[in-house]
Design brief:
With 382 residues, the protein is an alpha/beta fold. The protein has helices spanning 15-26, 41-58, 76-80, 125-137, 149-158, 171-191, 225-245, 272-276, 324-335, 362-380, and strands at residues 83-88, 95-97, 104-106, 112-120, 144-147, 196-201, 248-253, 283-287, 308-314, 343-347. It is globular. The N and C termini lie close together (8 Å).
């Protein structure tokens, strides 16, 4: 085991669980978390989480999640679990770039959110999910992954998600209630033994000057820096509250991850003065698996900050092991900017941000994880 290799969080689902997940994505007559609507689903999910926790232990991972097997999509399940929010099947899915950057790939369509009343985060189903993980993990270090507050605020406020619902024309109320909903959740998370919360976020790149492809924004112009600062303020208010509770608060950033496809460009250099310098996270999981992220020199934003950085130099999108020499070279370059003891290695994203997962087998996934551990062991010697 190398303590310096970490996973972002999500892992491929086995076929038995996917039978239920495939049913969920087709139906809008069911209510999150769907256990009462689908006989046997809760039991299948319990077993899948137990199995994936055991697999992480067997592969000696330093930090364990539930593989996100409790979710259908990396971000929306959390919102569906808020009181006052409802799920529906939309007319279209998200728009990703197809393989080889040729054309547009449309995702699943059960991505709709409607706010039907004032939202709050009390008694969230994720609390039970975490308690289950804690029981299965035993003494292992564990984390819970949820979307960042600004991911949800931005996704709904910028792209018309508030229309036709309780918050139409009440964007300030939505902002306030969303922040309080996160605080509700974090308070209960801490009360049941939570120690590490990870806010996942793929919205930063819409502010990049060099983002030439962001179909998620449907061709709209780059939002202003004023909006970026609002997103940062929203996140920091929740992060700071998490710190007051005694939580470690991490973030993971990527440019989209759906069935081995991506959504956007945008280098870290172009947004470092905002999202790297100004957010109060304890640890940043960043993606550097290809040229879209730009130069590793963007890490200069952390040079004088007491934060940890997880370098996503490996790819969860491919079914082959990665170029070890490239990874070692970038680790060496990164260590000349940030102290080696503040760096970690990971894949750029999880292996299954949504149920469908990336296009590789479970065995190939674990082979890639094992390779990551070996590279980390070689570089850090631990």
């Amino acid at each position: 085991m190398s303590k310096r290799f970490l996973t972002v969080g999500s892992l491929l689902r086995e076929e038995e669980l996917l039978k239920y997940k495939d049913e969920i994505r087709k139906r809008d007559d069911i209510t999150y978390p769907f256990y009462d609507d689908l006989k046997g689903y809760k039991e299948a999910e319990d077993k899948s989480v137990a199995d994936v926790v055991k697999s992480q232990k067997d592969h000696n991972l330093a930090q364990i999640s539930d593989g996100e097997h409790s979710k259908s999509l990396w971000h929306l399940d959390f919102v569906w679990g808020l009181n006052g929010a409802e799920r529906y099947i939309a007319d279209t899915g998200y728009l990703f770039r197809d393989k080889g950057n040729e054309g547009v790939y449309e995702t699943r369509k059960d991505i709709g959110i409607k706010f039907v009343s004032k939202i709050n985060g009390k008694n969230h189903p994720f609390i039970d999910h975490f308690k289950r993980l804690k029981e299965e993990a035993g003494d292992a270090q564990i984390k819970q992954c949820i979307p960042s507050p600004s991911q949800i605020y931005g996704g709904e406020s910028l792209f018309g998600g508030l229309k036709g619902g309780y918050y139409e024309g009440k964007e300030e109320d939505f902002e306030k209630d969303l922040i309080e909903s996160y605080k509700d959740f974090l308070k209960e998370f801490k009360e049941v033994g939570g120690e590490i919360i990870q806010f996942d976020d793929c919205i930063w790149e819409i502010f990049s000057d060099d983002n030439k492809n962001s179909p998620i924004s449907k061709g709209s112009e780059k939002p202003s820096e004023e909006i970026a600062l609002k997103f940062i303020d929203i996140n920091n208010e929740v992060i700071d509250y998490g710190h007051e509770l005694g939580l470690k608060v991490y973030t993971h950033n990527c440019r989209g991850n759906y069935q081995s496809r991506s959504a956007s460009d945008g280098t870290y250099e172009s947004i470092a003065h905002l999202f790297l310098e100004k957010q109060n996270y304890d640890r940043f999981y960043l993606e550097w698996d290809d040229e879209r992220a730009g130069s590793i020199e963007a890490l200069q934003a952390f040079k004088d900050r007491d934060v940890e950085v997880v370098l996503g130099l490996l790819s969860s999108k491919t079914n082959t092991i990665d170029d070890k020499e490239r990874v070692l070279d970038l680790l060496e370059k990164a260590s000349k900017i940030i102290d080696k003891d503040r760096l970690y290695l990971s894949h750029q994203c999880g292996f299954a941000s949504c149920d469908e997962g990336n296009e590789l087998t479970v065995d190939e996934q674990w082979a890639k994880i094992d390779q990551g551990q070996e590279i980390a062991k070689e570089f850090w010697g631990e």
